[in-house]
Amino acid sequence: METTTKPNFIQRLFGGGKTTQPDKPVALPDAPRPLPGTLLTLDLPPNDPLVAYFSSQPGVVDVDKLNLDSPALRDLTKQGVKMVIPLVNQGELLGLMNLGNRLSDQEYSSDDRVLLNNLATQTAPAIRVAQLVRQQQLETQARERLEQELRIARLVQQTLLPQELPTLEGWHIAAQYRPARSVGGDFYDFVQYSDGRMGLVIGDVTDKGVPAALVMASTRATLRGVALDYNISDTHTVEHTASPGEVLARANDLIVPDIPPKMFITCFYAILDPRTGVLQYANAGHDVPYVRRGDTFIELRARGMPLGLLPGMPYEVQELQLEPGDGILFYSDGLVEAHNAQREMFGFPRLSQYVASHNGGRELIQSLLEDLEIFTGPDWEQEDDVTLMTLERDAAAAHTHSAANPTGEWKTLDEFETPSQEGNERVVMQRVARVAEGLVPAARLEQLKTAVAEATMNAMEHGNKNNPEIPVQVQVKASPQLLSVRITDEGGSAPIPDNPAPDLDAKLEGMQSPLGWGLFLIKQFVDDMNIITDEKHHTLELIWHLKNTAVEE
Amino acid sequence: MATAQLKLDVRNPGPTVSIIDIHGEVTGAAETPFMTAYEDASTHGARTIIINFTDLEYMNSSGIGLLVTLLIRVNRQKQRMFSFGLSDHYQQIFQLTRLNEAISIYPDEAGALRAAEK
Question: Domain B6-117's class?
Fold first, then answer.
């Protein structure tokens, strides 16, 4: 109880004009006598014995007759208070009516006391009602502010979600976003690359309302910026597109310094090559999407921490060849974490079975939402945003595709392995160069050789610990547009040691090791680079654009 | 394979200039021969060490690290390091690594020697 916060009511009751300033006490004549109708300043902490006394003692109290060790009581006496009428309502002390000596200096009569008692019993409930009304007003204001915030959050979200879905020949994309009343931070997005590939993003910001909407907006912008403007080399003008893992890693490093504490973002980033059906993807802690294939399903798993937690995080890149008739469902946790009246969750098993047994696309989304409603029941208040996005490959796509473009798929040009022994990087370099000669522009062949040699050295040293018994595997493939060189070691999913970017000045001053140029040179000399790992293997995929020619038979 | 396919010759075309001619590969394995060659090149009080890359067959990132180590020693001795005979590819690597700012690149031996006399 905070009696000191309540003088406003007392002030109104007494119609008191001036309040006594704490630093400017009212000048009193010899005998202390409060000015009529003045508000006393009284510090009455909840632990003062006077509080307990007044709360339990309805009716007029003569200050002189009290024998309590109370600082507040001394204060009252000092200010010339003779009589106190506690204003108590339902056991709660709401305020004090304080009286000094009568102006006539006569004692208070018993009639006076009865009158004051009656006054107090009527005043206390009136004050309580006034307090409740005030409280209600404040709550209404707070509610309106919250509603306003929600409107803003919803607006931010709806403005930033794609207004139109992209169209891809041979593919179908559908999406639906259903906001919860409190608006979470769900988002999805599509990034169109100039080489015809398409980036697909689905993400979820922890937290709700305006903060989540703002973090969602900046995350979406960061991801777009990183995905489309990732030029790691100024030595050549070929557009470089980052792998999904690089997109997430770079976005994470940009987000970490600015994100509010206790917030983070889960996000799944995939790049589809619609011509070949190859889907590369990386995952920052988002719910794993499901691929329907025939009457079963595949999970698109890839390791990675949510965005915004720690800088310098690696994001594993995985790849799946989507076959004609395959369909993917991307979704947010609002779906799987929806509860029914019995507090059961919709859950992953139910969802994966659903994906395996239903055709995809808009119909899947629609029937999934209907089933969700049946599951949760009619009185369900949606706890979190629900976002659903599907990507479907036409069953007939492969046929028309291959008729129009007989070399539309990847073709393996060479495949071999070499023991992890110093010097063998030159063997690999020369062999890959012989295959690549004539495919990549002549000016880039030397760059390819350096990148392949460096990647092989890394694989032998870091992945296979220079153990000659463990070979480095090399695979060279080409699509109509790209040359891919995959160099695989047995380093498993342990990330490549991420040395700081080499800086010559720092090296010359002894602040960095003179070594550490390998990965730097690789990045300078490729058009794209992917890291693909599993339990045992670590693969570095180096990619170059072909010089406008199809692969010869 | 640890014995590098490398031969280094040291010449002293002037009282304060030494040239190290590289024939073969500069890799991590080249460290000992390279440092020996550098000591040879410095015994007569050379102020400028010129590296001749004309017969360089291959240099990898460890070889670049080796050049950085050498450069640290050259700087410590208040010497200068020049180069000539770099192919376009290795000139590009010098630019990317900014080694070209610390090791001046000349098109040929005559050019490097003229600059060394200044």
Answer: alpha beta
